[in-house]
Design a protein that fits this description.
This protein is an alpha/beta fold. It contains 18 helices and 14 strands.
């Protein structure tokens, strides 16, 4: 899909995923790494063979060129490559390339229709701009990772799935593709910015909007307008639907949008619409429950109805989790299985989706892209490269470097790596 699109990436850790997504969709991604160790993500976690799982995932599909951007020749070589690409992705602290004399203005001088993306932790402006942080920090900041109590002390959440660092590269990849389309149509360059902290906050947007509305000076004012009160109610309902309580344990007191224990595990009932609730009651032969508690037509969670919750607990205990999923499908009831560690990957639906990549190619068991094109997973078949593995072949192909020029660049210390 992105055949003919060429990306030059200078990134570390999770921002590498911008290039991963673009490579999965067919773009040529050339990763510029420092000589020697290269991207520190190569050392993140317990290695598989001689490469970390993070690098094998985030750097799949890319070509690696080892260039020392601190040398004059290395910086000049980078500018030559900028002239051959559609976009540059900077995935480090803001201003990292500029501090090496490679400002946006200088890059655009080398490529007048360049798309430039800066993906960083906290963004290019604000008091946290230069704060060093990693994965969990952005979710903690965004209110997505509340603390728990362990042995009487605060502790980070158990089993938390990072969101800011996964969401930000998706926004970044979408922005790059959009800007490349614009550049090809208009010839105009673009300067793009995505913050992982911003992405986490946007991911938790419903809750933050509700909390901000309740903190306004007139939130408890008896003279609050009807429009303000209506907006606050709507935001609270949206926050509740997104899993945020707004201060009350509404998820815990929910009845028709709740976890229930089947005979062998947990299932999620989501019968907050009349249609689903009535279908559930008819399917289980418990029309008495619907007659007693018919509820409102839409988004009725029936908070705090302990009598109904006790009845539903007994109903759900009578079947297995798989039987309940089959029941939901047969009777058109919104619901889902609830899985713990080691269960999702053996689910029959997961198995049918074919998300596993070939471990012989990528060196480990890992999931590919959720994007499908014409029924096939949009994912690169090229494994993560070693540091500088494509330096010579890339410089020969794009810049026409011959043996003598490559030897001179090596001797000056501007480039490293090999074509293994």
């Amino acid at each position: 899909m992105l055949d003919g699109v060429r990306i030059l990436e200078v990134a570390m850790f999770a921002p590498d995923a911008v290039g991963m997504h673009l490579a999965d969709l067919g773009a040529e991604v050339i990763k510029v790494e420092a000589l020697g160790m290269g991207d520190p993500a190569r050392l993140l976690g317990v290695p598989i063979g001689d490469e970390s799982p993070a690098s094998r995932r985030w750097n799949r599909g890319k070509h690696s060129v080892a260039i020392d951007l601190r040398t004059p020749e290395g910086a000049a070589l980078f500018l030559d490559l900028v002239g051959q690409v559609d976009a540059v992705v900077e995935g480090m602290r803001p201003g990292s390339l500029e501090r090496r004399g490679l400002s946006y203005e200088r890059l655009v001088a080398a490529n007048p229709k360049l798309v430039y993306l800066c993906l960083s932790g906290w963004g290019e402006e604000g008091p946290y701009r230069d704060l060093g942080s990693h994965g969990l920090a952005f979710d903690a900041y965004a209110g997505l990772a509340p603390a728990r109590t362990l042995d009487g002390r605060p502790a980070r959440p158990d089993g938390h799935v990072w969101q800011g660092i996964e969401a930000a590269p998706l926004y970044g990849a979408l922005a790059v593709v959009s800007a490349v389309l614009r550049a090809r149509a208009s010839g105009q360059p673009s300067y793009l910015e995505v913050s992982q902290a911003d992405a986490g906050a946007v991911w938790n947007g419903w809750r933050l909007a509700y909390e901000a509305s309740t903190a306004e000076p007139d939130a408890t004012d008896a003279g609050e307008s009807a429009a303000q009160e209506e907006q606050r109610r709507a935001l609270r309902a949206a926050a509740e639907g997104a899993g945020a309580s707004g201060g009350d344990d509404l998820p815990g007191s929910d009845v028709r949008y709740q976890y229930y224990a089947a005979s062998d595990g947990l299932v999620l009932l989501m019968a907050t619409e009349t249609r689903f609730w009535e279908n559930f009651c008819r399917g289980t032969g418990r029309t008495d429950l619907f007659e007693r508690w018919p509820g409102a037509p839409h988004a009725d969670h029936d908070y705090g109805n302990d009598a109904l919750r006790n009845e539903l607990s007994r109903v759900f205990s009578e079947r297995s989790r798989a039987e309940w999923v089959a029941f939901f499908i047969e009777h058109d009831v919104a619901g889902a299985p609830v899985y713990g560690p080691g269960e999702t990957h053996v689910d029959p639906h997961f198995a049918s989706r074919g998300l596993w990549l070939d471990p012989d190619v990528h060196g480990m068991r890992t999931l590919g892209s959720p994007v499908r094109v014409a029924g096939r997973m949009a994912v690169t078949e090229r494994a993560s490269p070693r540091v500088g593995a494509d330096t010579e072949s890339t410089l020969r192909r794009l810049l026409g470097c011959d043996d003598a020029r490559l030897a001179q660049l090596r001797e000056s210390g501007a480039i490293g790596g090999s074509n293994e």
